[in-house]
Amino acid sequence: MMERMMAASIFEVLEKMFFIFLESGDFEQRAYANAAVVDFQGMLNGRMGLFMTRSMAQTMAANMLCISTHPVSNEIVEDCTGEAAEMICGTFLSKADPSGSSRLSLPVFYRDAATASNEVASSPGGLESRLGFDAGMEKMGVIFRFAP
Q: Are 77 and 107 within 8 A, CB to CB?
């Protein structure tokens, strides 16, 4: 049930805000270049990492801001990736905790997805869910790690 809410939140944000239609796929750590990490507190506590290929980050930023030139600047990609992480985590938490008592940290952007993965794994946690997605040749993954 929890993973279904996570996936629904990811699909919702990517379709509505970035005009990207995902399909479920495998979480492929070695494929990801960029990442953003967000901590959350409230009824649920933990950390979420959003991982993606460089081309996925470029496409998301271009779509969100209606930019027709590629490549999009690194600064815009970083901001967009962090914003996407906040939106995905916030959407999930609004479904899991309708009382609205959850709080999110500011996102931290990583140019190295392996470092971000280690950061997510370093948070105290009991339950961890990894979800992978494909959009054509582009890939995205999400890790939710919940504190006990």
A: no
Q: Is 104 helix (H, G, I), strand (E, B) or coil?
A: strand
Do residues 36 and 109 touch, judged by C-beta distance below 8 A? yes
Cα–Cα distance, 124 to 30 (Å, whole number)? 24
Inter-residue contact 34 to 57 (CB < 8 Å)? yes
Query: Could you list the residue range(s) of the whole structural domain that residue 120 is in?
Result: 2-146
Which residue, chain included where needed, has tokens 């939140």? 9
pTM (whole model) above 0.85? yes
The token pair that represents 71 in the structure block: 């490549």
Whichever domain contains 44, its CATH number is 3.40.1550.10
**pLDDT tens digit string along 55-68?**
999 999 999 998 88
Element (H, E) at 110: strand 108-110
Kindly state the average pLDDT of the residues 30-55: 94
The dihedral formed by the CA atoms of 28, 29, 31 and 32, expressed in degrees to the nearest 10:
120
